[in-house]
Amino acid sequence: MSASSASLDLEEVTRRVPTLRLVDDADVREETARLTAEAPGYFWEVPASTSNYHHPLCRGERGLWVHTLMLSTVIERLGDSYVDLGRLEREDVDLAHAAAVLHDQRKNGDPTAPSETSVSDHDLRMGRVLREESDLPERVAEAVESHMGPWYDGPDPETPLEDLVHTADMIASTETVTAGVQGPLPEELDGLGLEEVDLR
Description:
Layout: H1 10-16, H2 26-37, H3 63-84, H4 90-102, H5 122-133, H6 138-145, H7 160-173, E1 181-182, E2 196-197
């Protein structure tokens, strides 16, 4: 596992995370891409879970990356309902997408000395990164910190935005729910059995 990696350029981040194209707000999209350019090398390589909790496509190499893309699909689908029900504004779905892309970027802890498995405070670690190194709204950090709900060390979701991110994460993690991935599918993920979809 790579301890850390050199920064990616923004074009490469957008290639790896095509769901960024779902974010309408240019400032939110660019800041999310900038932070993702600094993601630990392991983010692109490790399984989403070593305990077989996540979807089977997310349990192997590059599984955390796959899980992140699947989560964005669920955010997009559920976000429409939250907006139609008056729980969120359409621009809030952009913040949910930012939280989805960023939520597990410290899953294995310290980028320079990562754990072999996920760490129980990864939600809080990434929340600190957002508060200290980001111009994204505070609500994104709060959604990242509460994405685990009653599990791990972070707080429970309290706002509709936090609830959307938490609920979507639980759905995208479910063994029996296979979310498609916004295309174009990154070539490194080709052959894994992912369905490429166009959400817009």
